[in-house]
Amino acid sequence: MTSPAPIAEPRESAPKLDPAAVPALSIDAVSHAYGQRRALMDVSFNVQPASFTALLGLNGAGKSTLFSLITRLFGIQSGRVGIFGHDVSKSPGEALRLLGVVFQPRTLDLDLSLTQNLLYHAALHGISRREAAARSAELLGRIGLSERAGSKVRDLSGGQMRRLEIARALLHRPRLLLLDEPTVGLDVKARADIISHVRQLVTEQGIGVLWATHLFDEIMAGDDLVVLHQGKVLAQGPMSRVVTEAGAQDVNTAFMRLTGAQVMPGGGA
Amino acid sequence: MSSITTREAPRGFSFAEYMTCLTGIVWREGLRFLHQRERFVSALVRPLVWLFIFAAGFRQVLGISIIPPYETYILYEVYIAPGLMAMIQLFNGMQSSLSMVYDREMGNMRTLLVSPLPRGFLLFCKLLAGTAVSLLQVYAFLLIAWFWDITPPSSGYLTVLPALILSGLMLGSLGMLISSGIKQLENFAGVMNFVIFPMFFASSALYPLWRVQEGSPYLYYLCEANPFTHAVELIRFALYGQVNWISLAVVASCTIVFMIGAILAYDPSRGLARRGPAGGEG
Lengths: 269, 282
Prior knowledge:
The complex is a heterodimer. By secondary structure, chain A is of the alpha/beta class. Chain A is built from 8 helices and 10 strands. Chains A and B meet through helix 1, helix 2 and helix 3 of A and helix 1 and helix 4 of B. Chain B: GO terms for molecular function: ABC-type transporter activity.
């Protein structure tokens, strides 16, 4: 397996903002092992505020482990994770309040109504009932589900549930949003809706987004890209640069060259 | 893009935020309980079967002499009522633990644990919520039992409340401790066999311990060492307006030990981290 020339200066790869800027998310030399199995090896990258960073990797690349570390589900064994400068291990409260997450498995209460789900989440963040009700109504309006506010989540479609989960993740007004393969299992229309909604959050509200995926067609030219493979970061930087440096024409080929993986036709890895 | 360059100052959490979180968790647990009518019905049917059938059949076999806190001869039904109240809480505590495993599989536990509030506090709220649900079940049972001539003094309904809260917390935190070690939902059958049944039968719930002592001294020591025995006795005495200090001490210390154990087990740098990715992870 011939790997291409190493991608230049991975540690200093956030040149587009002024150096004093605190990244929305900073992953610094993070490694993680489950017993003997090493899931992450010396992973480092940043997500800038108001940017869309795609974390591209096959299933089992370590994306979910990384998410579990950022959200403090697992303890960090080595390295450091910071959210707007707050160390996740040392001051988890301050770090987590700036973070919104959409996990890959659905995490809604199916028997509760949309509003009840949102109110519960707001309570977990200590948001008062009145404020929570106002924000819930507003967010439901924004995702076009106002009329369904009182119905059970069970009755929603897959795409609607995802939109609700994104709304829920935004309820406490985080400035960093993590999404773990949020479009898995959705139809084409629902996928497109979710992607454009999240991209709007980046441009209109300045939220930093980390979007884990294994689908190449979800990545656009202006995005930042982190290629994770078997627990290692193989390349990172603006998408166009990663593609050029891999000597490829598109993400698809670049990914294939970087990982030596067999890429399925149809845009998925 | 320049306004987002400074690090946010830490601002901590106010008392009101803690209370909002607590009421939110209890509220959600209550809503979920109301939506699961089968769970409520089965939580009631189980002790009622014991009361209506088992106790009626056993009444003639097992004579109960006058033992504290009772001041007269009592029917067997009256004797086992506190044991059945504790049984409701035992099942509820283990079922909450089941729901935590289920939650973890479904990812709801993640929603809870990414709350910025301290994790120990979140788990404590979860325990209180589970206990509140068990109180609903116990009082519903007491109401039905009243028609079955189990009529403790009316003040007993009030004095038993603190005892029930404490025993509910103890059994809930035991369940939480166990749940941190369960990987999959199916293992609940194991919990039934290895935790619920031994705890229930090796206790004073169904028979006074002096009876057990006559039969087997070793079993007697086992029963005496069983925290569930003390939960039962704490409830039994409290129902008649009395305090069993030894049981209170045992239940209180077990609650503290189990709760600390559960909080440590759910500590990200310990329990969960060792076991690898939770279910459903890619």
